[in-house]
């Protein structure tokens, strides 16, 4: 569970996904880009502690959903955080930035 109001990327969430652990988090900042709501975890609006707790309780109680999201999390992390793809995208971004000045 991650309850921060603001988060630029959230390495902790990315690592959890890579380990097959669905993430329950406040959908703030980069977390909404890291966690695919209802596929790899659950996102709630920031500052809604009761909703965050309810989402976590639901996921803990529903083993089938937890297993499904965990498998999806691992698969998504393998693609989204593949080091070769990320380096290629960063290189392309830097080359574009250098060309456009």
Relevant terms:
single chain, 101 residues, mainly alpha, Rossmann fold, two-stranded parallel sheet, 5 helices, 2 strands, flat
Write the layout of secondary structure elements.
Layout (H helix, E strand, L loop, with lengths): L10 H8 L4 E4 L4 H4 L6 E4 L4 H13 L1 H18 L2 H18 L1
Parallel strand pairs: 1-2
Overview of the structural elements:
With 101 residues, the chain is mostly helical. It has one domain: 3-Layer(aba) Sandwich (Rossmann fold), CATH 3.40.50. 60% of the residues lie in helices and 8% in strands. Helix 2 links the parallel strand 1 and strand 2 (41-44). Helix 1 (11-18) crosses helix 4. The longest helix has 18 residues, at 63-80.
CATH architecture: 3-Layer(aba) Sandwich
The CATH class name reads Alpha Beta
Sequence of strands across the biggest β-sheet: 1-2
Largest sheet: 2 strands, parallel
Summary, kept brief:
This protein is mostly helical. It has five helices and two strands, in the order αβαβααα. 60% of the residues lie in helices and 8% in strands.
């Amino acid at each position: 569970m991650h309850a921060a109001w603001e988060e630029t990327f959230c390495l902790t969430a990315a690592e959890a996904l890579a380990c097959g652990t669905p993430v329950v988090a406040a959908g703030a900042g980069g977390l909404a880009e890291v966690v695919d709501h209802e596929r790899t975890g659950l996102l709630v609006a920031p500052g809604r502690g009761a909703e965050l707790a309810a989402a976590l309780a639901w996921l803990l109680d529903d083993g089938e959903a937890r297993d499904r999201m965990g498998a999806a999390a691992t698969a998504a992390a393998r693609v989204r955080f593949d080091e070769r793809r990320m380096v290629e995208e960063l290189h392309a971004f830097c080359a574009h930035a250098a060309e456009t000045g």
